[in-house]
Design goal:
With 188 residues, this protein is of the alpha+beta class. It has eight helices and six strands, in the order ααββαααββααββα. Helix content is 50%, strand content 15%. The longest helix is centred in the middle third of the chain and has 22 residues.
Length: 188
């Protein structure tokens, strides 16, 4: 929700105005250690509260977590825009790589998520993710960096990359270089 609001430059309420209920996790893009909020009609929230208590959910001293969520909300515009910019730079790097191994639809990159298309079936998305995660002696010797990139095999031909507040512009550049190294190895 917050990534979409920042990307569209609108208030979150504008996006949710036609929703019956909304759940927002503070530990995703906002960077709080934990916490979520549920909003909706009074009877819906009351029932959710009752079920949460029935299942043993509850937390003492939640104010500390609420403070972290508040910091995330106060700084979300700057933080999420930075995440979106980093995702865009990564996607541009894939485009510039012009590799037969992978491609990206730049017009689809609107937030902190980049869907990378894998061509040719070799490697599979899972294999590509494994190679991006692993660090080899050869990589260290050729690039001077030991970089482990965590992507998620999304479908039979796609991997998903997601940015968050702990991924810097430098991390993004290193991830681009790692992908370039892996793609080159497959082309060899």
């Amino acid at each position: 929700l917050m990534n979409a609001a920042v990307a569209q430059n609108v208030e979150p309420a504008r996006i949710t105005q036609h929703c019956d209920s909304v759940s927002l996790c503070f530990s995703k893009g906002l960077g709080a250690p934990a916490g979520a909020v549920l909003a909706g009609r009074r009877d819906f929230v009351a029932e959710a509260w009752r079920v949460r208590k029935l299942l043993g959910g509850g937390m003492r001293q939640a104010g500390v977590l609420a403070a972290a969520a508040l910091v995330g909300l106060e700084h979300m515009g700057m933080t999420l825009r930075r995440d979106h910019d980093n995702a865009w730079r990564f996607a541009e790097g894939i485009q510039e790589l012009n590799s037969p191994l992978c491609s990206v639809n730049l017009t689809a990159v609107e937030t902190n998520i980049v869907m990378v298309n894998i061509s040719g079936g070799c490697p599979s998305p899972a294999e590509l993710c494994e190679h991006l995660w692993a660090v080899s002696e050869e990589e260290l010797a050729k690039t001077g960096h030991a970089v482990s990139v965590l992507l998620f095999p999304w479908s039979a031909h796609t991997v998903r990359a997601v940015w968050h507040r702990d991924v810097s512009a430098r991390d993004t550049e290193l991830a681009k270089k790692k992908l370039e190294f892996v793609a080159r190895k497959y082309q060899e």
